[in-house]
Queue: 3 jobs
Job 1
Amino acid sequence: MSIDIAVVGSCNVDLVVNVDSIPTVGQTVLGGDLRRIPGGKGANQAVAASRLGKSVAMIGRIGDDENGKFLQANLEENDVNTEFLFTTPLIPTGVALISVQHDGDNAIVVSPGANSELSPEDVVNVPPIAEAQVLLLQAEIPIETVLAAAQTAEGTVIWNPAPAPNESVPLELLDLVDVLVPNQQELELLIGNGSADNLESIFAMAKTFPCSSTIVTLGAQGAVVVASNEAVHIPAPEISPVDTTAAGDSFCAALAGSLVEGKDLVEATQWAVQVGAATTLIAGAQPSLPTSSEVLQRLEDR
Ligand code: RIB
């Protein structure tokens, strides 16, 4: 089977607790029951793209443990190709500790575990990366591996720099990226100064990257597409989110899927904004990822 989208990235088990408000430094709060949910920005994007009808391969690393088996089985149940999902002995599968507060906003701490072991050698000779029409990358694996995957790709490269890397990003990577997809905070961290709080500053900041286009996600405000010499704002539908976890992931997956279908960046972003919004109406990372018909249904029912 030919692969539309290859995802090189993280697989995490999400341990999620709902709270009234995310605790501040030094504060202890009581929350709801603990839930164990398949997550990880890479795996979320792979499952989202598959549910949206694309053929998808996931390239990553899990530990040789119960969590790893749980994540692999979940990817396979979602028709994601796991031929290049490697198992790492003696290192645990990645885990994310997530608090979700009353308005759907969250705070996440990731313990990367096996995700940190995904090496450049793991990705250089992987046929789906070279063959896919779109390669989707994030930043929960080593940056050298992100670069090696981008160098292997022959199709469109989308990089969602989430979470924003602590180290400086190799210029070589930005040169290979066709579409950069940060949120406002990630854009500010990548640039290192300035605030991305209006269309003009987002445009100016995005234009400093060598990539041909940048799409900045703005949460409830939608997204801005910066390509050629203009910035186009795509508003989001008005909704009351239940849980914003994985909204950025389904956005990236929908964007990738639309590019596979030959849509232009603005059309692709219009769809991605709808998919991201629909994702926030259901709790949990992967349980919330919609099929195409569920996107429209959820937004009509809201
Ligand atoms: O983007 C949401 C994801 O971020 C969660 O599923 C969690 O695993 C972290 O990687």
Job 2
Amino acid sequence: MDIVTRFAPSPTGELHLGHAHSALFAWRRARAAGGRFLLRIEDIDIRRCKREFEAATLVDLAWLGIDWDGDVRRQSEHFVDYGRVLDGLARRGLVYPCFCSRSDIAASAGAPQGPDGPLYPGTCRGRSASERKALIEAGREFCLRLDCAHAAAEAGPYSFTDETRGRVEGQPLLFGDVVIARKDTPTSYHLSVTVDDHLQGVTLVTRGVDLLPSTHVHVLLQRLLGYETPLYAHHRLLTDENGRRYAKRDRALTLRALRESGASPEEVRRRAA
Ligand code: GLU
């Protein structure tokens, strides 16, 4: 089987050394095996993503010597794809509208914690169809949540393979009733990543270990949607000399700043290795 990897940055800032590490990791795996390396721009958050950061991303990657195959897929141009999948999940009764605000959820003291904070207490799960209709008609904003217990029952037990960790047992309830379409965007990170990795034929998903918990949701969605599960490689996160993760706030370590201070692509590749 041909190996297909991808790098999927969100254009909310400039790329830094941590991104270079991640991009090189995916690119090398594809190139070493004579496979394909894809570039995907994850810009579903239209308010935070900027075209200038997207353009800068392409410049930075090219400067580093990273080339990609085929067209760049820009998620904001594919809301129709995600909407179609969402409709299918809704028809199967696997998602429900949630009208709660952040503060409603924060107020539900004692809720167990998930990887992203308190798990959703399920307030809107049991609403009747007429109640939902009335709230929507009254103009109340809502997101869509996955009914994870229902989804787990439909999907059955599942697992995935991480290259360094081996077989990982799927935990469908890890994030609780996770948001699958946001209030402001007709999709979510989890949904669009899962749909795109499938549509693009990605066989090896490489990304930072900070996203390992999310993989439990993605593989659950793959099961529900009848998609193949790719192989995963969650790599360590690059840290600075103080052991801190690189972040968008580290201006001095953006690839552009390094380039402008005279660093060569080889030097940056070495630092990012
Ligand atoms: N867009 C995500 C990020 O920039 C990465 C998505 C993924 O690799 O699954 O953190």
Job 3
Amino acid sequence: MSSTHTPSLNRLVPLWPFFKSVTRSFTDRRISLWIALVGLVVALLVTLVWLAGRYEASQYQAELDRDAADAISDIRSNLGRHILNLQSLQAKGLPPKLWQSDVVSLLGQNREWLRIERRDMQGAVLDFADSPLREPLFNTKTRMNEQIEIMQTCLRAKRLNGPAYSRTYFVPQANGLGLEVMELCLPAIEQGITVGYSLLTYGLQDILAMQLGDTYGRRNEISFVEPDGTRLAIHGTLPRAKRLFTATQLLDLPGNTLVLRMDGRRAGPDMFPSILPALVTAMSIALVSVLVLLVKDSRRRLKAERDLADALAFRKAMEDSLVTGLRARDLHGRITYVNPAFCQMVGFDAHQLLGKSAPMPYWPSEMVGEYQQRQAVRLAGNAPPREGFESVFVRKDGSRFPVLIFEAPLINVLGKQTGWMSAFLDISEQRRIEELSRASQERLQATARLATVGEMASLLSHELNQPLAAISSYATGSLNLIQQAQGHAGTFADLQMALARISEQASRAGKVINSVHDFVRRRDQDREIVSPHLILDAVMPLVQLQAHKLQVRVSTNLDDRLAPVFCDRTMVEQVLLNLARNGMQAMDHPTCQKRILTLQVKRAASSLSHGWIEFSVSDLGVGISPDIAKQLFTPFFTTKTEGMGLGLSLCRTVVEQHGGHLEFVPHEPQGTLFRFTLPTASEV
Ligand code: ADP
């Protein structure tokens, strides 16, 4: 969680349900948008392909029109050249024989020339020659059929004083076929006067073949048509293709007008008929591919969005169910994130906390200085202890509560620290339970003490009986002595002794009672520096009380110059008393002849426990079997009919509360040795 991310997340989380419903309606709308987009793209592509096709067609049509126009100009220039040929032939004025040979060679060079004639002014044929490249087209009879047409053409030529062309006409052939031909009549002029005519018969088919065939005939079908569409001559082949393009041009000749028609076919259904549609198709394919990729990408994004939303919802659920308070701060100490548990803990809303910096509203006013110092230490980059530290916060309602704080640096994805993340545990309940358990522990200890006192009561009565009886008999004796004493000096000495004994016995009784009183009185659990001697002195009268009853000899063994210990005196006295009592009870058995209880205090032997004092209580009793040893410290475990089974467990608690250690070992030659350690005042 980066510092920039956290606040935005805080803002986002409440928006989640709204975000979900909006996402659903977005999904529906997105589907229709996608359908519309795909439809539009398809329509665009179809239009593009269609336009490209149309453009291509128009290009082709324009090309065909240009070709037709070029073809017309080619024909014109050729026809013009032919006229020049004829004129030069006329100019030579050759005699018939030479004319024949000249004309035949001309006819051989121009395949579209079928026949040349020389006629006089009346139209009578003077000379003629047929093309050597084919069968003669006319005989005299068939030629006569066209006489009128020829004469009209020549008269027109005469009128024009230049070349004139006849209408086209059909000449049937012997093989059942025929030819469409056209005549050119050129007047022969000598000194401005028409003296005759030259006639040149053209085969229309051959004009097309010879003049246009190579250039235009390969790709197109070229034909001369009449204005009504009747085909007069045709040349070339049409490639097999779907679309037919047609271009027509007029060949306007003096005396005749021909229509040249050029037909070309275009391959329509080809997938890639030309570069432009191919380009458009390629672009369309690319566009569709991009669209597909886009769809895939958007699906992936949608999935990522959904995953993110799921993760967000999961995180929110997690945050809401957390009982640990979480708070993030940036490097300037400003709060950038708090979770609901933290808000609940301190009683402030998230918006009241976000962006706040020291002093925080949940800091107790008198501790602001201390907390600010702590925050400064943290912001300087010093990591807090891993096990956390305790602090006190104040709720919005003014109540205080203890918290356990764990802090860790907040590291972003780049590995850079962006702030601090803290987790808070409200430990007020824990504290309450601890307090309760401490109180009940104290009560238990007091009860245990009282139980011991109960036990001691009978001993007390027995024990106090002796000094009191002694006091009473000394007092009676003293009274008697006073009565007899008149004048006897020795009696005074006896009286003195008796009174001294009375005071001694009375103070002994008082001591016994005081020690019981001290023991029972419940004191505060204050630790103090106290000499081990004093502890031992305090318990000795009570130990002696029981030792007396059980006929046990108590021996003490104290090192000189023992350092004072730092302890709760009452509790330690109770531990000693418990151990001594247990030891004496263990020796209260017929098999135990020697009944000696040894209380020893010395410096702890091990170097590890240097600075510690060891107390030990050893007996020569029955010892502890392994079965009993297992349960020895279990509360309420006892082997005695009137025992409570709390003694040892309390002893261990007390010793461990002081940081010490309680253990037992078998004692030689028999019995058990219990020992425990306490720290010296200097160690603490
Ligand atoms: P209680 O004295 O009320 O029985 P304790 O916790 O002091 O409770 O002792 C538990 C049991 O441990 C005793 O009942 C006894 O059986 C055993 N025990 C304690 N001290 C000794 C000892 N010095 N020698 C033998 N047994 C012992």
